[in-house]
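HUMAN:
Just now I want nothing more than another pair of eyes on a protein record. I would be glad if you read both lines and explained how they fit together. I have put the entry right below:
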Amino acid sequence: MAFTALEGLFKPTVMFFGLTNSLAIMMNEILQDLINTRKVASFINDVIVGIKEVEGHNEVVEEVVKRLAGNNLYIKLKKCK
């Protein structure tokens, strides 16, 4: 299993503990339109908001949080930058 990241191809050397592909599929479905517009990248259970302009960044973050909360998902604030 390998997947593409912004920096190139990522191929883990071991399977993540307890990982199934259902979470990755669900994240892609929840954030599909934001992923298509290249405002958000989703890798399994990590979400990256990557907007070059300062304007609009907070709105995209707010939209991501709303969508995750609407699907009974949450964010660990200590892991956010």
